[in-house]
Amino acid sequence: MKISHIEHLGIAVKSLEEAIPFWENILGFKCYSIEEVADQKVKTAFFKVGQTKIELLEPTSEESTIAKFIANRGEGVHHVAYAVENIEEALAEAESKGVRLIDKTPRRGAEGLTIAFLHPKSTGGVLTELCEDKNGK
Ligand SMILES: C[C@@H](C(=O)O)C(=O)SCCNC(=O)CCNC(=O)[C@H](O)C(C)(C)COP(=O)(O)OP(=O)(O)OC[C@H]1O[C@@H](n2cnc3c(N)ncnc32)[C@H](O)[C@@H]1OP(=O)(O)O
Ligand SMILES: [Co+2]
């Protein structure tokens, strides 16, 4: 598949309010967007880091995958997201090569991106998100 760069790293946190000061006051990044993604039951906070971004993820419900992740493994790195040229083609290619898809059809993610996840059990233990920016296409 054609990947241009790491779109973002997703980090699970219990509370955005409690997490953001480390990223702003210690690392010196500016949180430029806070957005709820109801479909994923998360509230996100974004920081630009050169070409890529950090996405902090706070669960908005006990059924959120982020709430389950924090309960089982604690706060920390949750997923790596790659910018792909064509998400439908990328998913078809991954599936044809035996990768287990979480999303067979892309969904709407934060920042208006079109996203889909690959299962960590078939990606070497790293939950993998594919993103395509279809805005303006
Ligand atoms: C807003 C949006 C955006 O960027 O635009 C986002 O990022 S939304 C970000 C939040 N949304 C998502 O994550 C959606 C995709 N994720 C999912 O559907 C789920 O989290 C799954 C990855 C399928 C895991 O769900 P499941 O109910 O199976 O959880 P589980 O706790 O039973 O875990 C099953 C096995 O997967 C492992 N596992 C769970 N989450 C993992 C993760 N993030 N990275 C690596 N491994 C992980 C567990 O340790 C366990 O392994 P063992 O069996 O060996 O113990
Ligand atoms: Co993400």
TrEMBL record:
Residues 5-133 form the VOC domain. Gene3D superfamilies: 2,3-Dihydroxybiphenyl 1,2-Dioxygenase, domain 1. The keyword Metal-binding applies. Pfam families: Glyoxalase_4. It comes from Alistipes inops. The keyword Metal-binding applies. This is Methylmalonyl-CoA epimerase. It comes from the Bacteria. Belongs to the methylmalonyl-CoA epimerase family. Keywords: Metal-binding.
